[in-house]
Amino acid sequence: MTQHHETLAHLFLDGDEEEALFYINELLNQYSRAYLFEKVITPSMYYIGQLWEQNKISVADEHLATAVCDFVLSSLKENKERRKEYQHKALLFGVEKEQHYLGMKIVAETFKEQGWKVRYLGPDLALEHSLTQIEKFKPDVIGLSAALSYRLPTIKTLIERFKRLEWKPLIMVGGRMATKFDLDEFESDRVMVIKGLPHLRQWFKEGRAGVINETS
């Protein structure tokens, strides 16, 4: 039996935006947004990546699928139960020269579901530009995303700079890199490595977000 993520992946690869969005909204009648992000949308993109690695699809196919996935993420039904008052703020972006961004968009939606005010700045953001937004927004959490190991020096530079911010935000490091490599050296009371959406949701479930203001 074909799994939901495979069905969605082939809709992405067919370039069928309307059918892909319809399929996701139908699933929303049965499952939570959290389930869709963790068990359907994210695995669908991993599945597409595997097809590309196996030379079963072309780069153009992969780019088309990414564009359709982006459309679906931007068009999903709003969560009507979202809280009106924000207790915390998060700012998220992909490091300089990092082009992957769909995972970060899903993380942004996850923060919003938890009642956070979120600024998602997209991929490939230089340090000086991120600092401008960070100083204005003063987020409680700064989320950094990277997929490839040679972004590690950039991640380290960003962490060291953000540690000097006077209000002491929590720095989260995520992306495919965080699931494939041991990044324990970066972790501290100010830096957390997020190894996938289940890890982030566990952090929310444990209520650890509630202690941010107490420690900053």
From TrEMBL:
Keywords: Cobalt, Metal-binding. GO terms for cellular component: cytosol. Pfam families: B12-binding, B12-binding_2. It comes from the Bacteria. One of its GO terms (biological process) is homocysteine metabolic process. InterPro entries: Cbl-bd_cap, Cobalamin-bd, Cobalamin-bd_sf, Met_Synthase/Corrinoid, Meth_synthase_dom. PROSITE patterns: B12_BINDING. Residues 87-214 form the B12-binding domain. PANTHER family: METHIONINE SYNTHASE. This is Cobalamin-binding domain protein. It comes from Halobacillus salinus.
